[in-house]
Amino acid sequence: MQALDLKQLIRTTGQKIYFHLNHPIQWIRLVGMVVAAEVISDFLWVITLDDSSGMNIEVVCRKSPTYLRLAKKKSENMELTSEETKTMLKESKMGITAQGTQIDMSEWDVGMAVKVKGGITAYKGERQVALEKITTVLTTNEEASAWAELQQFRTTVLSKPWMISAREERKMKDGIGGAAKRKREKTQRRQEQEKDKKRHDRDQKREPLKDKSREQVKSRVAVSPLTGDLAELKRKHKEARQEIKKNQDAPEVWL
């Protein structure tokens, strides 16, 4: 794909999805000459690329978060340690790609031929490439090979309508449905685990209270002044019943 094609991509309303014909486009690959390289506001690398399509395109890359943090600290008149100064100098050459990978941006300069891969972004209505990968084209043969590869991809893929078979469509739908089902099951398991944990914590809190109540009851019975009298009363009652039974079973004696 070329810079001119990027300008002509169709974007769906309310979504960050771009289309070439009916092909959804996620990544852009370009081959061209660096005609400008600069840093904007000390936080963004901007490389302007001429790919001979009749329109230049800007390739952007954010500076390292470590550098931005130290630069902010320095701008607030806070003193940096010697180690922080060394780190800031090193990180000043680094950028962060579209997917968070560090890349040395000090290597690219005006006049170099490069191959670029990146996502699609925009600034003030102008589309740009959010850098993901950049390599130097060292020879004219390599440059010609890269151009041929791009042209072949345009002819064999982008120029034809994007279609999927009924089988592929079912597979995609099953995959989407399966993913949603797995997500629901995972959420359900997490909720059940949380309920079990709450129930366990609640039972753990109740158990000491039950033990304490039992101990209090035992303590009250043990110290009651009536406990000893009640036992003695039961013993005497039992002896009296045995005496009555003994008298009833004794034979009568006549004089």
Would you write up a description of this structure?
The protein has 255 residues and is an alpha+beta fold. Helix content is 50%, strand content 25%. It has six helices and ten strands. The strands form two sheets. It has a five-stranded mixed barrel. Strands 1-2-3 form a three-stranded antiparallel beta sheet, with no helix packed on it. The longest helix has 58 residues. About 3% of the residues have low confidence.
Order of helices and strands: HEEEEEEHHEEEEHHH
Question: How large a portion of the residues is in β-strands, by DSSP E?
Answer: 15-25%
Could you list the spans in which at least 5 consecutive residues all have pLDDT below 50? 221-227
Question: Which word captures the global form?
Answer: elongated
Question: Major beta sheet, specifics?
Answer: 5 strands, mixed, barrel
Helix content: 40-55%
Q: State the end-to-end CA separation.
A: 140 Å
| Strands ordered across the widest β-sheet | 4-5-6-10-9
Tell me the Rg in angstroms: 42 Å
Mean pLDDT: 76
Number of strands: 10
Structural class: alpha+beta
Task: Give the gist of this structure.
This protein is of the alpha+beta class and 255 residues long. The protein has six helices and ten strands.
Helix/strand layout:
Layout: H1 3-8, E1 10-11, E2 18-20, E3 23-25, E4 28-40, E5 44-50, E6 57-63, H2 65-75, H3 82-91, E7 94-96, E8 102-104, E9 113-123, E10 126-136, H4 140-158, H5 166-223, H6 226-249
Parallel strand pairs: 6-10
Antiparallel strand pairs: 1-2, 2-3, 4-5, 4-9, 5-6, 6-7, 7-8, 9-10
